[in-house]
Amino acid sequence: MAALLVSVAFLAVAGAAHREPAHAQGTAAQILMLNIRPQSLGSALTTFADQAGLRLLFPSSLVAGRNSPALSGRFTRDQALSRLLEGSGLAYAFTNAGTVTISDPAAGAPDAEGSILLGTIDVTAGSGSDAASGAGFQGTPDWVYETPASVGVVSGEAIRSSGARNVRDAIASAPGVYSGEGQGSFPTVSPNIRGVGDSGRVVVSIDGARQNAQDGGRYGGGMGGYGTAYVDSAFIRRVDIDKNPGARAGSAGSLGGGVDFRTINADDIIGPGRIWGVELDATTGSNASDFQGSVIAATRLGDIFSLTAGLSRTQMGDYENGEHGEVTGSNVYNMTARETWSSLLKLEGDFGDVRTSLSWMHQQNDFSYSPTGTTVGSDFESANDSVSANVAWNPESPLINAEANLWLNSSRSDETRHARIASGILIDPETFQERDFLSFGGTLQNTSAFDTAAGPFSLNYGVEAFRDDATSHVMNEDIAEDPLIATGWLPYNRPGQRDVVSSFVNGTLEPVDWMTLSAGLRYDWYRLHGTARYYNRRVTTTTTPDRTAQAVTTWAEWAQVNSLTTYNLRKAICETGLNPNNGQPISDSARQTNCNLLVQAGEPIDGVWRAAGTVVRGVTTYVTDYPEHETEVDRTDGAWLPTATVEFKPVGWLRPYVSYAHSLRPPTTNEAFFSGSVIPTNTAGTSAAPNQDLRAERARTWEAGVNVMLDDVVQGGDSLRFKASAFHRTIDDYIVIGRIRTSDVTTQEYDSFVNAAEDTTMKGLELEGNYDAGTYWVGAAATWLETTWPQTTQIFTNSDGSTTGEIFAFAGAVPPRFKVTVDAGVRLFDRRVRLGARVNHVTPNLARYLDENGNLTETGDPYTTLDLHGSFDIGRQATLNLSFNNVTDRRYIPATASYIAPGRTFLMGMNVKF
């Protein structure tokens, strides 16, 4: 039945797209499933904007001191707005299909140009604006504190005002989230959530388009597999964080949740009453932060379409590390350069019941790094294209709220690895490596709402699928002479294909006002397909036995052919008794010796004369070759993954919940087709082989949490938002680096990705809160994480023996046990000036290696940093952003990173809209 409804819904999309454009009231008639608690009117309108996908505009003074009733059930947008504004004396009007203006009829309406009074609150769906919503930590909108799950949002305003050098910095303060590998010149992001990350354990996407490319080249050789998602923060207006995969779109193949970067759209740029808009942003600063800037323009193309285009550039140099504090066990690298050009093109259409979007983001990066004190290193040229096409259909029927999304992501990384020279000797020649990764897929889903005898019920169901396709190429002067050497240079991005298909259904029932029940089920299926080749070093020994020379010929006969000069000399001496060279006589004994040699019998062996009876010793020869072994990989597997959540609402401001979920992550192409060597080597790769028995990781996660939302706590208009969760995750078959034996090679063990023999458990506590009194705010986020890692792997055997079962290394980063961020500030001069300070404290990073007691070792030291930030509104269209990061010039390695962070850095930026 679910599949039938989805099919019927989407067969009608083509016809719906050719209808006449709908009027504003047609859009307002769409049926929504809403759940909004009684609260201040400003907060309620913000929640409504998020749930309805609308942009709301109203003067800031309009909602002060006003409250709204609860709203739960199915409503049109008109009905919902009427209920929320009931008794307030306020009115609303749809200025277009996605924008609503709220006003006080008694105070007069905006002028004909649609201008809005100074102090307007712009509440865009999901924008996270903190101006009216009593937003949470980092601009988190209220719907996050009404969701019975560990979800989070980092708003675009929080990204811009925090002084983030890249998107890694933007998400680093979120509870339970770590920004991943790399610093400085690396333009990639690889989030770690609750201790799991890298190798696709956390889904990273841009507008739903997955960024599945993995690399291990700068992360402990092939032992990592950290994500290479290229995301330009200039085009990001919101970051959605989901810390637990569930029975819903976007969770296929995910073990620990996802991070989705939402790009800007036309409504973010075009002001009310206008048909075009432009946003300019430019930032420069100290410590090699040379320039970050963008220009984004949008225009409406008639009543239906809008077009958004943007261009961004980033220029960074070799930053200086902090001078205060010690760092032990670190990789100290010079981030010598980074230049990035990015572009965004997005076409949106609003047909009333049907809304469409087609977007393309392109990013070109040139960056490099080298170990401190050396001239070696690598230069990179990377390009990433992410394309997403979306169709959403939401007619008046409560049975249809459908969405289809098709996406493609192409990632290419070209690395020129400089020649390695030691003591004047060439170790490795300059080598060029090209790694390409193509991912494409789609999602089809629908939500139906019902009134049942047990209460309001909604059902979400659909399918999603994607394919990963990896290829690699390498070349240097030695490979040109011997192509076999290329096998030692390809420990990353090994060629192969991975297909993942998932179907899901989840339902939500509200049997009583104080409780909500949710349950879901998804089935994930995957296929790994391709050919893996690995090698072993084989030395063949040949030994000839001792032998006695035979009387085969005479010396005279042999010498006339092989040593004619010597033969003539001996013959003359024997016949004349004189030395032909000087005419002098020789002794009788010498003459006889020469005569005897002429008639001596013997045997020439290996070109040397051997007299008969002489014992000739045997000879041993060694021949080295590298036999190739081909492994055809074509295997499938799947699993049913249930989820369940119970939420309680004993009072309006308190919402505790309990949830349980299963998740699964198939092996990546890099793990399934692993071969060659663990780290790059300019010889034939003979140390690594694919593991045909590698299984998917499976996790079971319990979570208990609570959401708190309070308004008017200490004074009128203030707000308190708080979210806490405790979790316990058990992972079966966690993938690590270990040893295997193959059926083809009985003489050695190979390095390979293997499954751990024992369970991996991760448990922790996450806290997030924000108190906002308007003129000042105090927010904080804290994470405590404790992980029990396995100490042995599964055993692999062949006819000649078994592996030891020891773990060689963990694939991926290991977060520290504790981190906390406190952010506080004030708003002055009618909130036009905002000044804040942020303190971060993190305990030491943990290495990926076990010590002699089976425990992860610590690297680095605990660190505490201080950042200052401020923003100043210059008129209504310009904002000056200032930040002073790492004020104390602390020397430290950021959580889950491998490289020392930048030292004291000052940034100044200007954002202008017109």
Task: Walk me through this protein's architecture.
The protein is mainly beta and 914 residues long. It folds into two domains: 221-539 and 625-913, Maltoporin, Chain A (Beta Barrel); 545-618, no CATH class. The protein contains 14 helices and 58 strands. The chain has a 22-stranded antiparallel beta barrel. It has a five-stranded mixed beta sheet with strand order 9-19-20-14-15. The protein has a four-stranded mixed beta sheet with strand order 6-7-3-8. The radius of gyration is 36 Å and the shape is elongated. Mean pLDDT is 84; it is low at 1-29, 109-122, 124-134 and 217-223.
Short description:
The chain is mainly beta and 914 residues long. The chain folds into 2 domains: 608 residues, TonB-dependent receptor, beta-barrel domain (Maltoporin, Chain A, Beta Barrel), CATH 2.40.170.20; 74 residues, no CATH class. The protein is 11% helix and 50% strand.
What is the topological layout?
Layout: H1 2-11, H2 13-16, H3 24-28, E1 31-36, E2 39-40, H4 41-52, E3 55-59, E4 67-68, E5 71-76, H5 77-84, E6 91-96, E7 99-103, E8 120-124, H6 130-133, E9 151-155, H7 156-161, H8 167-171, E10 177-178, E11 188-189, E12 192-193, E13 196-197, E14 203-206, E15 209-210, E16 214-215, E17 226-227, E18 229-230, E19 236-242, E20 258-263, H9 266-269, E21 276-285, E22 289-301, E23 305-316, E24 333-350, E25 354-371, E26 378-393, E27 402-417, E28 420-422, E29 425-428, E30 431-452, E31 455-475, H10 477-481, E32 496-512, E33 515-535, E34 538-543, E35 547-548, E36 553-554, H11 555-562, H12 564-576, H13 588-599, E37 601-605, E38 608-611, E39 615-616, E40 620-625, E41 628-648, E42 654-665, H14 669-672, E43 697-711, E44 719-732, E45 735-740, E46 750-755, E47 760-772, E48 776-788, E49 797-798, E50 801-802, E51 809-810, E52 818-828, E53 833-842, E54 845-850, E55 856-859, E56 863-874, E57 878-885, E58 905-913
Parallel strand pairs: 3-7, 14-20
Antiparallel strand pairs: 1-5, 2-4, 3-8, 6-7, 9-19, 10-12, 11-18, 12-13, 14-15, 16-17, 19-20, 21-22, 21-58, 22-23, 23-24, 24-25, 25-26, 26-27, 27-30, 28-29, 30-31, 31-32, 32-33, 33-41, 34-40, 35-39, 36-37, 37-38, 41-42, 42-43, 43-44, 44-47, 45-46, 45-51, 47-48, 48-52, 49-50, 52-53, 53-56, 54-55, ...
Helix pairs in contact: 4-5, 11-12, 12-13
